[in-house]
Design brief:
This protein is α/β, with parallel strands linked by helices and 235 residues long. It has ten helices and eight strands. Strands 2-6-1-7-8 form a five-stranded parallel β-sheet. It has a three-stranded antiparallel β-sheet with strand order 3-4-5. The structure holds cytidine-5'-diphosphate (CDP) (2 copies).
């Protein structure tokens, strides 16, 4: 099968990263979680007491050249680094989650992250998930999927995920947080969350993880063949 780029975009907790990880494993592709990169920049801002509202383009460039964000695969799992420090756990904290959309709205931050993301796609054979992969990072990706799910289903999933980690968070609080982040991500000026015209929608509200992985793998085979007639038929 020819190697392609699979762009997975969609709102928070629609299942992108879990699905992307499984799809990449089955196809022998690299998986890139771009949300983790914006989370790492957010953690860096917090540690250096940088206020997103005041930061200049030069400061961003300097900060990220002193402490670069990078991704490395450790035991088949993507880890995120700030400089030489593995921050994969820390970037999932509630305080990073609450601040990330504001940091991700800063054009100079996006410029730096998109540059890194595009460099990772040079060889193809990549599943990348985020908010602007099909629209901005890889507008020519062979396959674009826009994953959605009811906000309630998404909040429920996040709750289960946190409970599995031993954290208890109220359902309504999670629902509010998810809706608020989606609003910020969809209304920002630079690269807002939106479906690319040539993306296919995958509503995961009533699907199992296995079903959505199989759905993507199945379609990826057609996209790799690149026949426009076939693409019309499966859309
Ligand atoms: O996994 P979760 O849905 O909580 O979010 P994430 O994928 O880790 O992304 C965290 C945040 O990073 C999003 O809410 C966006 O503000 C930002 N993001 C972005 O702006 N562009 C991307 N390509 C990926 C994430
Ligand atoms: O990356 P994104 O924020 O879009 O979602 P995620 O971090 O993959 O979180 C989705 C959560 O929902 C994970 O715990 C999945 O196991 C779970 N889930 C799913 O992704 N798809 C389903 N059909 C059912 C549950």
């Amino acid at each position: 099968m020819k190697k392609i780029i699979i762009a997975l975009d969609g709102p928070a907790a629609s299942g992108k990263s879990t699905t992307a990880r499984l799809v990449s494993r089955q196809l022998g592709y690299i998986y890139v979680d771009t949300g983790a990169m914006y989370r790492a920049v957010t953690l860096l801002f917090q540690e250096k007491a940088v206020r997103p509202a005041d930061v200049t383009e030069n400061q961003v460039r300097l900060l990220l050249s002193e402490t670069p964000v990078s991704l490395k695969i450790v035991d088949s799992v993507q880890h995120v680094f700030l400089g030489s420090r593995d921050v994969s756990e820390e970037i999932r904290s509630a305080s990073v989650t609450a601040a990330v959309s504001e940091v991700a709205a800063i054009p100079s931050v996006r410029k730096e992250m998109v540059r890194l993301q595009q460099a990772m796609g040079k060889e193809k054979g990549l599943v990348m998930d985020g908010r602007d992969i099909g629209t901005v990072v890889f507008p020519d990706a062979e396959m674009k999927v826009f994953m959605i799910a009811d906000p309630e289903a998404r909040a429920h999933r996040r709750k289960l995920e946190l409970e599995a980690k031993g954290q208890t968070v109220d359902f309504d609080t999670l629902l509010k947080e998810i809706k608020h982040r989606d609003h910020l991500d969809s209304t920002r000026d630079d690269s807002p969350l939106r479906q690319a015209e040539d993306a296919i929608t995958l509503d995961t509200s009533h699907l199992t993880l296995d079903q959505q992985v199989a759905w993507i793998i199945n379609k990826a085979k057609f996209f790799a063949e690149g026949s426009p007639d076939r693409l019309q038929k499966i859309n």
